[in-house]
Every structure is written in structure tokens, then in C-alpha cells.
User: Fold these one by one.
Assistant:
Number 1:
Amino acid sequence: MTYPAKGYGTYGPDPWNQTSWDARAAGNFVCGGAGAGLIVFAVLGGMGGGYVGWLILAGLVLVGLGLFCVSLELGRPLRALNVIRNPRTSWMAREAWVAGLLFPAGIAAALAFPGAMWAAALLALAFVYCQARLLQGAKGIPAWREPLLIPLVVVTGLVEGGGIFIASIPLHRTASLALLTLFGVLIIVRMGVWLAYRRRLAGVVADGARAALDGAGIVLLVLGTALPLCLIALMASMVLSVEALMTLCLLTGLTATLAGSWLKFVLVTRAGFNQGFAIPQLPVRGAAR
Amino acid sequence: MNKPPDIEHVATYCYQCVAGPDLLTVKVVDGIATEVEPNFAAADVHPGGGKVCVKAYGLVQKTYNPNRIRTPMKRTNPKKGRGEDPGFVPISWDDALDTIAARLNEVRAAGLTDPSGYPRLAVSLGGAGTPQSYMGTFPAFLAAWGAVDMGFGSGQGVKCYHSEHLYGEFWHRAFTVSPDTPRTEYLISCGANVEASGGVVGVWRHANARIRGMKRVQVEPHLSVTGACSAEWVPIKPKTDAAFLFALVHMLLHAFPRERLDVPFLTKHTSSPYLVGPHGYYLRDRATRKPLVRDTIRGAAVPHDTPGIAEALEGRFDADAVEIGPDDEVLAEGVLAGETAFSKLVAHMAPYSPEWAAPICDVAAQTMRRIAGEFIDHAHVGETIEIEGKRLPYRPVAVSLGKTVNNGWGGFETVWARTMLAALVGGLEVPGGTLGTTVRLNRQVPARVDSVLTGPDGFMEYPLNPTDKAHWSPNPNIRNAYRTMVPLAANGPWSQALGPTHFSWMFLDETPKGLPRVTLPDVWFVYRTNPAISFWDTKGVGDKMARFPFMVAFAYTQDETNHHADILLPEATDLESLQLIRIGGSKFVEQFWDCTGFALRQPAVATQGDARDFTAIATELASRTGLLEKYNASINKGAAGVPLKGPHWDVALPPDKPHPPEAIWDAVCRAASAELTDGRESNGLDWWRKHGLATRPFPRTKWYLYPTLVEKGLRFELPYQERLLRIGTELGRRLHEHDMHWWDKQLPEYQALPKCKDFGLPWIASLEKAGGKAEDYPFWLLTARSMQYAWGANVGMQLIKEVADNVKGHRGVIINASAATRLGIRDGDQVEIGTPQHKVRGRAVLRQGIRPDTLLLIGQFDHWVTPFTKGFGMPSMNSLAEMSMDLTDATGSSADIVRVSIAPAGSAMKGGTA
Amino acid sequence: MTRWAMVADLRRCVGCQTCTAACRHANATPPGVQWRRVLDVEQGEYPDVQRAFVPVGCMHCADPPCMDVCPTTATRKRADGIVTIDYDLCIGCAYCAVACPYQARYKTMRPVFAYGEAMANETKRRDDSRLAVATKCTFCVDRIDAGLANGQTPGVDPEATPACVNACITQTLQFGDLDDPQSNVSRLIAENRHFRMHEELGTDPGFYYLWDAAATAPASD
């Protein structure tokens, strides 16, 4: 029998990266946020009249994939239904309830039941909001409990879902300048929220978390903001052929989405340093120093 | 329907380290030990609330450890060595005991000693005497046997508090020294890591003292657990504590008015007023040969014990006297010029100012001045306190010393300076002050104050080994030659382990001139000790062990020492076996009780595998070697802790037949019970199993030696070491008469007033002798105690490893963060620590709480056989340290300190600057 | 009312980990799972360095973040302040573990034994209901409840007291009823300067750290 390679004594007092949630939990936020965002964009896109049911279903699949992913992390998956028992205070329970309503709403929307689309869009927004509140409710992790995390997770979820929507325009051909503009605005808002969030964290998170976040932040800036904005500007310039536009849509969507996914992945798996322990006073041993 | 579990709480004791014994209960559920808990029933008598320290919580795992040896085993590979697989195979107890007995009987036939005169049977026990509380009646077997060499050490006598042991016992019956913690107000602690090594009682008392406001100044190169829990940390340079303490003594003598010192104490209760003659020996009355003092009333010199005199503490006075030197030589006679010992002290200490000491120990002179002032302010000279109706001096200041400070070169000087600090304010052996705890070298009585006998010159008797021509012998009784070389080691039952136990190993291949050639023992028993890990020159010790012809190891698991054994015997471990021991009174470290008595260790669970109670094994060995009657007689006489026949009892065992452990210990229990109650009770094993312990009051006045000395009209032999000067000179003469000059470096340590030197120099000289340069090996490597591990029998316990890892330093070498950065070492990096001859590897642990020129390796690891432990990746100083005559002082000890280099592993750097 | 709370006198603690080990014994937690542990904290720069030892574990907060986030109601707070986990309800999502600012919660997916295969004592104490769910310090609630049923006082009578408190060899850890102004913990808090860990987070922890005598308190013996 060997003991852990890092020894047993790696639990403080300095902060350390949480070991409870790994890529499986990150997958829930990544896929769930993107899926919800996709549903919202699909519904918005469907306002123009086209059939967006497949997109809504694709969004549900992503949400479901995320939930399945995180279920792999559960200690007792056979009891998973217990998750709904505490909607009174728990955002995880609420997320489960909202998911429980989102799926039938989305299927109904795909089946073109009247009003179901709006229900699906609202529930999708509620779902990504629950996820944001869920993550922010983790009081033990300074990078997560920062209140600006909530708008960050919501807006990046919308961007990621929107990105899938944009990237798949070659397939579904549902596009409009308004949606593209909305997408561009959301990308800018995301950057703004990220910068505000990042500034709030200065001096509050451990070095390891800071380094991880900054790395993801650069990806977000370059790949997730500057590049897609440039591509959007290019698309809006109207000088390109349709094929070129399709390619640019794919690139724009992918880059914006992947940067956001990466940010959430890093946030959950690498920037989740806890607060460690600190004492505000040192004890007096017999006589003051 | 489940049957409710059968739950028992079994009382027992823990004495795994010298800070014990302590009491605990084991929760046993359906016959399985599950939990260790305090013994709250003992809370009223145990000075630690009936509790045990973290180590005892490893005992459950110790019992059920799958790595245990569960049957006797014998070696099938005749080759021994680190790279050799012993090929142990299980054998029956009968086979094992027959094999051992055959060898033992061969020895008895050939004669107990070999042609060199050394015992053919050697026994090595670890833990500074603590194995005695676990080995049942094995001491009775050894007593029945006859000549035994217990000097093949695993660190005892050299790595311990050695100078404190010998000089402490000499000066104030203090085998170890403790502050009177419940009353002390101010404590200067030079490297005494009591919060790690003081045991339950030590940390219990010191925690209470802190809350009460006791200020401890920890003077130590690194911020140990004790430094952390102190009011002040003084990061002194390693091995310079003597200079620090000399400066404090200087301050007391030269910076404060004389009346701030305890002049009456010095005058009446020390040899300060004794007149010293022109040759450095006392001026003695020509008729009685008693040392003379100047009586200021009569204006003449009189013997020191003349009633109704007022001794002059200071001054030069002529006297009609005789000055007698070594070997009873009359050095001078007639009207001789004398000076009081105290005046000589004052003059001697004049150069040792704080300004002198500051650059040596890297402590600001102002700090030393302040500490001296605080010490004298807190001494409350002149005050008294009532203890149990007796009015005693109250001096709530003390000085404690730790390992590496109170052993090796400089140990004598440091212990002397500490004792002088106490004596100057009258704080020696009085309430609040600096106390001894127990005796090991003087006659063994339960209370150390009762060991005091009147000796020569108004001092206590001390059983010095002879240095006179008629009685000194170059033929030692055992291989470490303690009786020949170390007069202060006395010749009691414990003296063998207090001689230079590294000599036994060193002399095997190179016996110094004049001593009989050191031979391999025919039979070697090893118990609760792992010299291949815990002594210096681990490689060399292992190689030598491999040459021992027949080794029997009482083996818990396979380890680095029993790797070389011929027979492994599994003895029933702590929670499986039976024994009764004495508790209470005053014992090592900080165990001061208000009662005294006995405690039982009883099986909490059935023995695992085929292990057997040590008492049963001892009886078997005695039976098979024709020693049964002697063995039983020895038990009857008290080898099991209490004589079975006493003034009020007779439970002696019939000597002619073997008795099972229960019968033996039942008798011991009855005897103990009778001793405790003066014969009114005689409770046997059943009673003791239920109650666990029994005590009667122990007067608190017996914590202090001062009342006994006053009662007997004796003085503390301080400051002037006339007796030591005498015996040292005699020893030198005896050695030179036999053309033995290899102890010449050590002889100058025998001084009447020690000089303070650079006590780190021998280690630098040793480095240079090995071909290294000081600037290439700029770091001092030290060790420190781990409470979780100390005494090693639990290095293989997973729980201990797990909890110890919470305390910084258990996973690598501690290095100052700035020093590390300068060397390109980051936290967690693999590093290489080296001397010119050896290199070890480990992880770096960067900390602020250590001097930039110092490295720290906690404990003694570097295991390569012990299961679970061998993968720790924790290096040991022992693999780097040499056994060397140059590094041995006059008491035969050395110290755990080495000059090393450190660099990132695999780099070409040799060390760089500190 | 009753509010059970722990007091740790940091002046006393020597970081010996006896409480850590005793908790492992009393609760038979698997290797590495230390519901009670003691931290080794260093502050400052050489030579002005200080070092302290800080026992930590579940703080049994009055406003426990773990309880709010728990989706299943497995984590609850009793009227006497003890925060409990119903192992049978818990789904092992570990949300509580990241919600806890004191890193007090553990989840062990599979049985782990000290030496690989289970020893007799590990088999005896094996409790698979605690696998793959959240676990943490319970203030030895079973001992408290059994003790109270026997008319004993938690924090005073050892059988009714948490194992860590019982084991502590420097009397650092004390346990008692905060709502009783005469209890040991109430008096310690009144007579000494204290703080709680991460107090600014508003969790109202039930774990007080003493660091100095209060200015106006009489010197105690």
C-alpha cells in the first residue's frame, strides 16, 4: 500500500484547487450553458418563420449531455432523483426542476405547440441562470462566489449557444443581421463582464487560480472576442460570397463558443482554489512579543 | 436480530517514549481493538489528565498491521548485507528456541566472556530504557545470564542529552532537567523542543504555564514547534549556545549588583566560598583534609562544615593549608595563597561579555543583555513559598537545554553555564526553578532525592568509575569501554548504554591502542531498536551488523536491522502482552506526579498470529539454558519491578519450575499492591486488570533536591569543578601510563572552570579532514523531534504518517525560503544534500522559520526495508554523519550536526553560499 | 435553547495531531479523511516569524452554506446547532463540499484501507452507507445524544464529549453550550479575546479561537 504521492499534508493552510468537481462537473456548465443559449437563439431565430425545432432539440441534447456528464460525478447516481427535494434554498435543486420543465417545453416547441417556443426560451434562460447561481453559491471557492460570476455565466452561456447557432447557419440557414448583431453585442458584453469580474478578483484569489483564469482570459480576448468580432465585421461588410459567409459563420461561432467553453472548463477545474485558512490574530504565548 | 456488540474498555499504559508513562484505555468491540481513548479514571493522578499523545493512537494499527511478522522465522540465505535477500522462512517456536538455546549454551560452555574479556552475549535495546516496559521478565533472564554487553548502541549515549545526563546527575541528581513548569515565570530554552518531545505531561504543563503567563524564550536555529509556542524566538547559530549562556552568566556576575544574586544560597549551599590554592585545587585543612573557607566572623580559614560561620563569598585569603592534587599528591603545604572559588569564577567569566558572544552566536548583544535582565528580574531572589507546610525558596526562573546543545563538544560547557545561571539566583532545585527529574547513574531508588548519600568535601556521593592507579583498568567490561574512559558514566545497571555506544561499532575494525581488541559478539539480541537506521554512518553500521555471527531479532516487521538477523521472533506487542510497571514520583522529561504507584499493561486483544508474550519467551530461554532457578530468583529479587518478598509480603515464586506470564505478573501485582499499602492489601492480576493502576501520595517537596541537601548539610558542587579536574588529570595519567594517547583531545574538557570555545569547529575540522572546504559545505544540518514519530516503533503506521504530514517538515528537508531561492530551489523540488563522502536526496520544504545557514531534517528515516516506510522518500542525517573520535567529547558523546551542501538534484552545483 | 460549540485556545495548541488521530479512531474514517485536523500556519519573514497550530473541521455554522446548497435536504441543522448529514438521502454531488468555506467535507468513492487490504478493526467498523456521500465532523453527535440521555453534560463528562476534545493533551479544545452563559465555552469566550475563521463570510460558525486573555479578565490559575 502506498500513500498518496503528494502526501496527506496538502490541505492548507494555503489555498488549494478543489478536488470535488472535475471535468464531469465542468461538462454540465459547458454543455448546459451552451445548450440553453442555443435554445434561446433558436427561438429568436424561429421568429423569422423558419423551422428551428431541430435546433431546439439539439439544445436539449446538449443540456441533457451536461446533466448526464455531471451524473457521472455523483456518488450515488441511483438516488439522483433526490436532487429535487430542496428547491427551497438549493440552486442545484432548482436547476433540476427547471430542467424538468425545459425538456417537455422544448419537445413541445419542436412539435410546434403554440406558445411552447417562448416557454422553452424562457425556461432555457432560467436554466442557465440557475447554473450561474449554482456555481456562485459555492461559498468555499473565491473565484466562484464572486457575484459577477452570475452575469458572466449567463452571458457566456448565451454566447456559446449563439455561437453554435451561428456556426450551424450553413446547416439551418436561419440567419439575420439582427441575430448577428445580437451575437456581436453579447460577445462584447461578455468581455465587459469578464473584465469587471476579473478586476473584482484581484487580490482575492490564490495565485494558481489567478494564473489559470488569466490564461483563459487571454483565450477569451483573442479567440473569443477579437477574432469573432472581426469576422462579424467582415461579414457585415457585405463584400463576401455566400460560401465565404458560411465559412465565416462557422469560424465565428466556433471561436466564440470554444473560448467560452474553455473559460468555464478552466473556471471549474483549475481556478477553483479555495480560500485556505487564515487567522486574523496570532496567539499570545505567555507574554506578548 | 443482531446481537448487541460486546464492548470492553481495557486500561493499559503507553511508554513508547521517555516522556511517559501515560495511561489509556482501548475500546474492544467483540474482541477487536477499535479505538484508543484516555483513561479518565486516572485524570486525578496523572499530570496529563489521564491522556495519551498521538503515538498511542497508532497502537490499533500496530496490532493489526498486515506487515507484522507473525511466526518465528529463520534465515536461509547465509549471506548478509543490504543487497542480500535474507530468505526468511517460517519455523516453529520450538525450532526457533532450540536454535537460539543451542547457541547460548555453546556460549556458556565456552565462557561468558571471550579472550578479549568482552561478553559473548550482546543485547541492544532502544528507546532509552523504554523497552524495559515492554519486555516483560527478559531483564531477569539477562540478570541470570551474567555478563552481557549492552553497548552496541543505536544512538543512546551519544545522540541523546548526554552531557546533561552525566553532569546533571553529578551536580544535582538530574539525569534530565526540567523547569518547575507549574511555577516558573521565565524560561530560557536553548533548543529544548519540549512541545514535540515533552510528552503528554510536558505539553499539558507548558500549555497551562502559557495561560498563566510564563514567558519562554526559545533560543534555537529553527522555529520548532516549541519556538512557535514561545513568547520569543532567538534564531541562534547552531552549536553556539555555550557562548550565549556564558554571556548571560557574565551579565549576572558583572552587570548587576552582587545583592541581586542569591548570595546566601551561593555562600551556604554551594562550594563558592571554598578556597582554591595556587595549583587550582582546594586549600584543605591539614588535619582533616576538608576544604577550607574564610570565616569572616573569626577572620580565619576554617573547614567548610564548621558550624556558626559566615563564609566569605569573594576575596583572596591566605590559609595554613595543604593543597592536594591528583593521585593524592601533596602539591603544596603551609601558608598558601587562596582565592574563593566564586572570585575565580567572576574573573574567569570577565571576558565572556554579550559583545564577545554576539558575533559567535549571531545574537545581538542587546538581546542577551535584555534576557539576562529579564532572568534576574523574574528570579524573585529572597522570596519564599510554602510547599506542604515547608518554607522553601521561590525562584521562578529556569533554563532548559535540548539535544545537540547538551551533548557533544560544548555540552559540558553549556550544561555548566545553565546550572550556574540557576545557582547564581538560588534557583537550583527549588520551587519555580531548574530541577532534576530522576536518576539513572546513581543508585536506583524510586525517588531521586532518596538517592543522595554524603560524599567527600561536603558534596553528594557520586559513583565515579575509578581513575586511581589501584583501581583503574584498561580492560573494560564491555566493548564501549565506558568504565575505562568515562568516570562520570558510573557503573550502574544503565551505565552500559551511557558510555560511548558508537565505540562498540567503531572499534570493531580498529580498536585503539591499549584496549583489548574489540570482537564480534557470539550472540546478539535486538529489541525495539533499529541501529541500521538510527545511528550515524548507517552504511557502515549495516556492513558491520552483517558480520555478526548470530543475531536474534525480536521483530515487529522486517526492518533494516533485522534484515541481518538469523532468527526473527514475533513478540506480542503493546496491546497484546502483560506487564506491571512503576509510575509516578518524578520521571524523565516533565513527569512530576503528586503520587506514585504502578500501572498494568494487559492484553486488550488476543495475540495476532503466533506471537508470544515476552515473559513467556524469557522463561523459555531460561529453561533451555539451565538458568531457570537463577531466572526465577532474579524475578523474586525484583527484576520484574518489585521484589516478591518484602517487609510486608512474600509472594515469591517457587524457583524450580517455569511459571506462565499470568502467574508471574499476578505475583508482581500482589507485591506491588502490598508495597503501596504497606501490606494492608495484596491485590492480584484480576484486581489490576479491572482498575489498571494504583497509587499513593508522593510529597511534592520531593520534587526538589534543595531540602535534602540542606537536611544532610551538603552543598552543590558549583561553580568550581575541582573533583572533575582531579579525575580528569588522573584519567590522563592512567591512559598515558598505558601509552594510550587517542583520548588526548578529550582530556582537556576536564576543567575546573570551563573555557568557552567555538564548538562548531570540530565539525568543520572533520569536514576538512574528509577533503571538503567549509565554503563548499556552508549549511549546518540539524534534526528535530517529531512527536508523532519519536522512538520509531511506529514509522510503519499509516495513521501516524498521515497525521504527521500535517506538520511541516515531515516530507522533506526544511530550508530557509530566501536561501532556497538563491540556490534555485523551489518548494517541493528534489534536492541533494551532501558531504564529501555521502549524498542523500529528498524534497525541499521552504520555510521562513529557519536560519538561512541551517537545514533541518526531522526524525530519522531513509528506510529501505521497513514496509510502508521505505517509500517515504525522506532522507536522514544519519546517512551523512560519521562516527568519529574527533567528534566525541570527554563524556563519550557526539551530536546530531553535520556540515553539508544542498543543491537541486542532478545539478552540478556543489553548494553555493548560505 | 442550546447551541453546541467548540472553542480552540490557540495559545495552547502544539499541533500534535492527537485530536486528528482520535477523530479517526472514534469515527473510523478512511485514510486521509480527517474530519478534525490541525494546520501548521507560518506568518512573517525571517527572522520575524511566527507559527501557530490551528485545529479546523466543520464549524457547525448557524448559517451553513452547505445546508442551503444541498439539493436533497441531506444536510440539515438541528435545533441545538449541530449540522448533520443524512447519508441515505445524499446523492454525493459534492455541492456542499465546494460551498463550505472551511474545506470540512469529504467524499470517499470506494473503500480505502490503511494497508491495502482491510485489517480486522477496519472490517469491524466498516460502514458502506458513508461511501460516495458527503461526510464531515458531526461533533460526535452520537456521543452527545447518548450522553444527554444518560443525564451527562457534553463537554464535561467524557462519554458525552467529542473524541477530539477528550483526546486533546493541551486542553486546547473545549466543547459546550454557547447558550448557557455559565458553560465552559461561554466563560472562555467571555474571558478571552477570540475570533472565528473567515468570519466576514457571515456563516456564524460555532467554532471559536482564543488568542489572548481579555484586557479586563482576571488572571486565571
Number 2:
Amino acid sequence: MSKQAAAAGSPEGTARKIFSAYDDPGTPEEISRRSFMANATLVIGGIVGLGLVIPIVGSLIPQGASSKGTWAPLTADEFKSLQEATNKPVKLDFALKSKDSYLPEQSSSEYVWGIKTDKQKFESARTDLPTSGTLPYSDGSYDVVNMNFVILSPICPHLGCRPVWNDQATRFQCPCHGSQFNFDGEHVAGPAPRGMDPLPLREQSGVAEIMWIRYESGVPNRVIISYQS
Amino acid sequence: MLNWIESRTGFVSMAKEFLVEDIPGGASYWYVFGSATLFAMILQIVTGIFLTFFYAPSANTAWESTRAIYLNPWTHALLSIHYWGASAMIALVFLHLLQVLIWGAYKSPRELQWIVGVLLFLVTLVLGLTGYLLPWDMDAYFASQVSLNIAGLPPGGEILQLIAQGGPVMGTNTINRFFGLHVWLMPAALVLLVGAHLAIFRHNGAAGPVVDDPRKLRPGRFWPDQMFMDGAASFFVFIIILALATFAPPFLDQKADPTNAAFQPYPAWYFLFLFGLLNFVPWLFSHIPFLASQADTPWVEMLAAIVVPTIGLLIVLLLPWLDRSTTRSFASRSKILWSTFFTIAAIVALSIYAQTGIQAKIAAGPPSESEAQILAEPAEAATTTSTTAGGGASAASAAGAQVFSQNCTSCHGTNGQGQPGVAPPLVNNPFVTGDPKAVIKVVEDGLHGQTIMGQTYGAQMPAWKSTLSKSDLAAVLTYIRGSLGSNKASPVTESQL
């Protein structure tokens, strides 16, 4: 502004200076008008900002993705190995179908632990499970022990690592933080807040099918967070 | 609080310094175009940044993620604002440029501000062009195909096209490159150029109104007087963008399908005049007796698509030196003003010419599906079924008829009359007797789910190149184009396959 005033010489070429608009405080009306315009400009800016922040925040909140489990078949051989199981858990491989947002459905190989057990023995061992013997899932509730089998999630309820079965110790041992679970998946040692998580199993026209459920780690209660890997 | 920040950063005095500026002759609503353009740019940057949270640039995800953006009402709102914000920004840059042109504000000492401004206009157009491709739907694909091929027209343009395309044909590399240009390179250039534009503006001060003696003008204040008017104008622009985004949101077409030869691409409205020029120049040549034979040659196309726009751009860039008048007064600049008027009139006329042409073509073509249908479709592409062909080698003379009767009649009918709801007729079908390349493509690669002459058909046209030999393909194509019913189109040779 001072630059402006200096550049703007008088028409007569004398030293008369035109001052910057900011050098003249203006009449009281002008001052009050200016303070109104300043506030109005800030309000306009605020309204526009709000008009953008609302859709932005709205868009960032994830929309409830399809929260329904899908049944995955086990091969006849795998189910047979489970039927013939004795006192060792059986590792069951299956293809987990997953739908990740807008990506086409993908299939990845996943596994669960299957054990052959007696309903009464299991239920008395697993006091961390509901006395009803069922757990809720997307289609209602499922029997934890079905056809004398229990399917256990391979995910450690502590912090999401994968316990491995140790034949000598006859326990599942988690390599990350040392949580231990017995044959029934009961928590026997280490930091895990609950026993291993049972998954749904059913027989559909002669084919055994299981459902993958991901439970929240690190909490004593079973909270379903996803039906995807 | 402000003092505390000021004493440690100097930000408050910096902001004051930025806002304190004399406006010769006082604040005016005539001066809002530059600020409103800046507002549109900020709007585009903000909505654009958040759209990248949802968009994934690759041939397998571009359309799919855009579809997901359409399906969520919040992201759809951001996209719609971004879509109309682009139009608003281009319109405002143009109005700003036009005003500076009419007022002669590009004159010394503001020549470089003018040049930077014209470059900003070009960057904005490139942003529009690159953003147009990103949804990867039918129009995005085919309209970008046209602009990329134009880039390949001039000598040495093949290399430019190859670099922009990221390969010999459009694909996932093209999306990646356009995305990089659209969200990084061009916005960075835009912000730097805007910085230069504003710095030069502050150096020279505002040009002010056209008067005999600007020194007599009483100065007014930028903050808050002019800023309030700029804010009010920007708010008006924002409301218009919101209204358009709400009541006329953008349209997502089917995912890009390079085999759909029947699709009529159309450019964004701000490129219509170039599109019109591309059609008009050959038309003009065809009506000049001694040039008529040249009308459809590549050099005429290059003249229309590249030479004329480039000359126009150079004239605009060099305007501060082409305008020889010593004052900004309208009387002394009548030639410039009349040229501007006729140029604008030509741009509007070419845009209308192009738009009517496109509308006629779209009206004549197959009706497009509604957006609800497109969005409801599963994102996975239809799987192609392969069928085994009955016949193979046969006598060369009747080969076409035999291949036809063995492979095609079960769906298209013994005489090529078609079956309603199953497969389209091949007789009296302008597509079959039209561009041989398009027909070859369908027979070679198959087709499904296409609306043909207003009808839909359920059967899957198999990709015959996997089951028929080249000689059989050429024979059957020649047969359906030239011998079936009253069809009398050119034969197809093996070398065309």
C-alpha cells in the first residue's frame, strides 16, 4: 500500500501524495460497515467450511459392510481325517471366500483346528463358553459341539497370533506371548483373556461346512468383528 | 493469544500484510472473478484429496471404486461437488481471462501475469482432461482415446502419445499416468503458478478500472471491503455448485469396454469447441471446390485438431505484444475487442455445432442403460463362454456360407434374420454392413449384454477367434457382409483380422 501511494504521484507532478486507503480511518459509519463485512466474510467462510466438512466426515465413517458369514466346504478327505481323529487336533484347510470392499470376491487358503470330543466333557472344561452351548452369529446361533466335533479358530484370543499344537506338551502354544490352551481350547496359561474361539460347523447334503468368524482380540468376551480374514 | 503467536511466529503481521492492499477506485463486484476462481481451486483440492481416499487407479479397480463412490451418498456428494466444481473452475478462469482481455489489464507491466494466467488456464484444462478418464467408464475410455490419438497426430506425436498412454494401447498404465498427472503433477503446477500469479499481482498492484487518469482514483481497501465481495461471490458459486451437484449429479456409465464399437464418445462441454473444430474444418474443405479432395486427409485433421488451436493459443499468449495501443481505453483497442467478440462467438457456435451433432448421434444410437441398472450390476465382468465350432476347413468357394450355417444359424437364424430376445438380425443391420473393423472385433472377441437397435438379446456371442481359423473368419465375415439377404458391403480379407 505504501508502494502504491508512492507510485501514484500527483497529476501535476508535484510531491503531493495520495495516501493508502488504510491511512484514512473513515467515518464511524464506515468503521461499523467494515466490521460487519469482516464478520460476514468469516461467517461465509465458516458456512462453506461446514458444508464441506459434513460430507467429508460422513464419507470417512465406514459403511456397514456385508456382515454375513459364508459357509466354506471341507473336502471329504479332510472331514474323514477329522472323523478318525483321536486325541490330536486336526488342521483343516479350506478356501475362504472374502469380499474386500469394491474388489471382486477373492479366495484365499485358510485353516482351522478340528477336534473330536465329547459334548459333556467339552462343556465342563470350557467354562468361558455360555452354558447354553451355543454362540451367536449372523444367522442366529450355532452349537459349539456339533456331531461331537468342535472347530477352533486358529487365531489366538490374546493378540491375534496363531497358536500351534505341541504333541509333547499336548497343548496349543502361542509363539508370540506364550499363551497355552489344552486339547479343548481351554485357556490354561499365559496372557490370553479367554479360551480359543469355537467356529460354526454344519453338514449340508453330505458335505461338512464351516464358517470363518473373526473375534476381537484381547478382551474376555467374544465380540464378532468380521466374517472375513 | 494472538500476541503470543505473533511474538513467536510473526504470522499475525504476515496475515495483515497479506490482507492490506489498496484497490484503485475502491472495491467492486467486477473484481471477484480471480478470487472466485481461487475459491473453486481450493474446493477442487479439498474434495479431490478426499476422493483419493476412495479411488484406486488401475484397470481392475478404477470403475469398481468409482462405482463404490457412487453407492455411498457421502462420497457421491463429494464426487458431484468435484465434478461441478471442475466446470465452475473452468468457467471462472475463462471469465477472469475474458475480463482481463476486455479491460486490457495485460498491458505493461502485467505481461508476465497474463502469461502465467494463460498457463493456469491450460493447466486447468489438462486437469479436466485427465480427470475425465479416471472413472474408466465407456465415455471416459472413448473420449480419452480420441484425445490421446489427437496427441499422436503431429510428427513426433507418436512418442508423446506413447508416453501419455504408458503403452501402445490404453490400459491400466494409462489410468496410473493420468491419475499421477491429475492428483500430483498438475495440482502442484497449479499451486506454484497461482503463487507466482498472486506475487506478480501484489508487485504491480491491482490494475483498476479503465479511466483516463488512474492516478486520480481514490483507493479502497482489499480487507474487508473487497474480501467481503469476493466471499459473497464465492458463496454464490458454492451454492450453484451444490445445487447442480444435488439436482444434476454426474452419470456413471458401464465399465470401459474397448470392444463396444457402437459407443459414441462425447467430450466435456469445455472441449466441445475443439470437437466442433475437428468436424467443421473437414466440412469446410469439402465445400471448397479445389480443396474438396483433401477434406478427409490426415493433414486436414491435424490442421483442425492441432494447428488452429496452437495458433490460437500463441495469439492469446502474445497478446500483450500484439496489442499496440498505448492506453487501455476501449476506443483505442477496438480491433482487439472486436476480435475477442468474434472469437467468443466462434467458440460458442462451434460448441453448439458439436453438441447438436453429438445429440443427433446419441439419439440415433442404442439407448443407454439407466444409472440404477449400471450401479446394481455386479462389478465382476461377465465370464466368456467358449463354444466348440462344428465346422473347420471347407471348400474355399462356399466356405463363408458353410461356416455361417454351421456356426451362426442356431442363434442368428438360417437367413440371418435373428431371433427376438436371443440374437440380433444380421440382415438390414447397419452395424454388420458398416465399419468392417467393428464387425471383425465382435466376431473375433464376442459380445454380450449390448443393446442393439433398441433391443436386448440374451445369447452370448462367442469369441470366434479361439475356435475358427483366420480363413474361416474372413470367409464368414465376407459372407454376412456381402451375400446375406440384401447386404452388399465390402469383403473382409485375412490380413484385416
